[in-house]
Structures are given as C-alpha cells and as structure tokens.
Amino acid sequence: MSNPFDLADNDAYKSWREHKLFHAISDTSELLIEVRNPLALTGSERRALLERCNRSNMALYASNAEIDESGLQQLGFQLGLKRLDANWLAGEQGISRITVTENEGVRQSYIPYTDRAIKWHTDGYYNTEDRRIRAMVLHCVSPARDGGINRVMDHEIVYLMLRDLDPEHIRALSCDDAMTIPARTDEAGIARAAQSGPVFFVDQGALCMRYTARTRSIEWKDDDATRTAVSALENLLASDTPHIHTVKLEAGQGLLCNNVLHDRSGFADDPLHPRLLFRARYLDRLSRQ
C-alpha cells in the first residue's frame, strides 16, 4: 500500500501534499466555531469542529456557556475523546487547572504553572509509548490581563515544509534515537525513566510529532544530520509562515487539536481574576467524523 510518509514513496507524498495544502487552513478566523452549549453539541457544530480538525488537526470554539472540568470531559467525549491521560499533576478527573501556583510545592517548579513563556512543544513529549498524547483540549475559564498568547501550528504542515526543504531532515528526525528526554528523579529515586524516540512517526495510520524547543533537560542525537534538521525546524518555527496561528483564548473559548505544536507567551495577571485554563490530554485522536 502507498504511504505518503515513506521517503521512498514520492508519488504518494506528492498526492498527499497536494491534498493537504489545498485544504489547509491559514486564516485563523476560519478555525473558530461558535458553540451554543459545549455539553450538547448540535450536529452542525460537531461536524464543523471535526471538519476543521480533519483539515488542519485543530479547531477553535467559542461559547457563552460556563463549563467545569466535568463539562470539558463531556465536550471531549462527543468528539471521540474518551481516554484521559491522568498525569501526576492533574486533578482527580485527569484534567489540569493551568494557573499560576505559588507556594504549592512541586507545581510551582513547572513552567505551565507560572507566568513565564513556554517554548514550542507538543504535549507529553516525555511520555512512554503506551501513554502517547494524541489529542488535547485547552479551555479558557479566565484569560490573563496581558499576554498569555498561544501560537499553534499543524505538525503535518511542519513535516511537509521540512520535507520540501530537504527529505534528509525528515530522515534524521524520524530516527528512534533522535531526541532523548533524560530521566526525572525525585527524593525516592527515578520517577520517570529516560525517554528516547523520534520527532516524526506514524501512529495508527496518522502522522504524529514529538518535540520540545527546550534546551535544558533534552538531548539531541549527536550527529550533523540531526543538528541540521533541528536547526531547520527552529528556523521554520521562527518564520512568518501563514500556517502559524496566533491566538489569545478568551473566557469560554478553547482549542481542540490532535496534539499540534504550540507555545505560550509570558503574561501578567489581574489579581482579582487570574488566568485559568483547563487542559485535558487524551490517549485518543479526535474522531474523523
């Protein structure tokens, strides 16, 4: 069978590339769907959200309805997201409350729980294969007073642009030892073993990406091909390509995605209404239909 992500199958790649670029969304406003009630999507709302995700692996929604963690879980369920990744910093329902935490022990040492900028990454890049993060929902309860802006980019477009630049970039970034996340330790010893793996890989027939732009707590394969490919990727993410969407989520708005690349600018809070987002990570991909 043909495989567009096989570097030896140029015909399949050219066909996939043409289809991808024709349907890709570069106008951020086209990603946004108004939703009356996230807990009970209408047929047209659900189809519109999934249509955007099928084209660009992401969609934005906006609603005047207030939802809590259970409501966010119900929204995801309607879109095929059932298996939450209950990471160790998440709440009892497996959903994380992303807000600035002070004097809360371990949370305050992790950047998402601060007001600092977060570099480009996909979620769960340090997870084991059996806990791959395939989709994510990020819901804004309260925005920051200033900043807290996300940039997002479809990882399939990243792959396409790098492969067009030089297929050897893809070859290097697809090696099983391309990127290693060192072990995380705590007072009891090794809390998470080191995780080595590729940047680009195919999972359940879909192209996936595992990446972080962090320079600490990450080890890249020590060869020229990998260094050149990583540099090309960094240059792409620093470019003005229209395929990078800039979004500041307002209250009631959210991002649905198949774990696309994203970052976050630093921000300043309103002390009376601090920034709060719910983040749900899933082992499932968004439904195709």
Question: How would you sum up this structure, described in words?
Answer:
The chain is α+β, with helices and mostly antiparallel strands. It has a single domain, classed as 4-Layer Sandwich (Double-stranded beta-helix), CATH 3.60.130.10. It has six helices and 19 strands. It has a six-stranded mixed sheet with strand order 1-2-16-5-19-3.
The general outline is: globular
Quaternary status: single chain
Neighbour order of strands in the largest sheet: 1-2-16-5-19-3
Instruction: Domain count, please report it.
Output: 1
Descriptive keywords:
six-stranded mixed β-sheet, single chain, 24% helix, 26% strand, globular, 289 residues
Topology:
Blueprint: H1 10-23, E1 32-34, H2 43-56, E2 58-62, H3 69-78, E3 95-98, E4 118-121, E5 135-142, E6 146-147, E7 150-153, H4 155-165, H5 167-173, E8 179-181, E9 184-186, E10 189-192, E11 195-197, E12 200-203, E13 206-209, E14 219-220, H6 224-237, E15 244-247, E16 253-257, E17 261-264, E18 267-268, E19 276-282
Helix pairs in contact: 4-5, 5-6
